Amino acid sequence: MKKTTLSMLAILSCLTLLAQEKTMDTKKTTTMKIGMTSVYVNSTVEAFKFYTETLGFVEVMYMPEINLAIVASPQDINGTALLLEPNDNPIAKTYQEEIYKAGIPVIVFSTENIRDEYERLKKLGVVFKKDPTETEWGIEAVFDDNSGNWIKLHQNKKVTGKNHRFIQYKHKFSEALLESFSKPILGNRLTTNLLGIECPSPSSKASGRPEPTSYFEIQTKQ
Q1: What gap in Å lies between CA 57 and CA 76, rounded to an integer?
Q2: What is the model's pTM?
Q3: What is the mean pLDDT of each run of 10 residues along the chain (222 residues)?
C-alpha cells in the first residue's frame, strides 16, 4: 500500500485546529456565557476571608448567616463570579476530599505575571504544591486554598514572532486540507501550497523528491 502524503496525525491536527477556529467564528450560535462557577469549601466564612483578603478577589454577595459567599476578580467585577459553595452534604464532601487526595486542581485562575503573584502569595503564607513551572502552553503553579482545594494558577505563553507565524501556517494549512476533502482528488494527488508551505503529493516520488511520512516533514519552500 502506498504511503500517503499526510499522516493521520496531520489530518487530526488540522481538523482540531479548524474546529477551534469555528468556535471563534463571528457568527454567534448562542447568546449564553458563563455567569458563575463554584468550588466546594469547608467553611464559607473562612473561604471568603481567604479569597478576598489573601487572593484579592472582591465581594459580589456575602451572607454568612445562610452560608452564601460569592466573589469575583477585581479585574472583571461583572464577569464570571465564583460561588464558594459549602460542602455540607456527603456527596460534595466525598468528592472534594477524593479530588484533593488525588492532587487535582478544581479550578484554574489566570494571571499576566505568575512569578510576581507567586511571590506575593508566598509572603502571605499560601502553601504551594507546585512552584511556577514552564509548560508548552505557558507557566503554571498549584496552591492550597485552605478550604480543601488545590488551585491552579496559570500564565499564558505569549505568541509573537516566529510562534505567531507558525500558528498562522497551521490555520491556513487546516483550511486548505479540509477544502481539499470537499473536492475530487484527481490521480490520488493532494497538494497544498500556502504561504510558502508545500505538502508534496505521492507523485513527488517520481520527481525524485523525498516523500514526507508525517506532518512534521512538510517542507518549506526556499
Answers
A1: 10
A2: 0.62
A3: 46 56 62 95 98 98 97 95 96 97 97 97 98 95 98 88 52 53 43 41 48 39 38
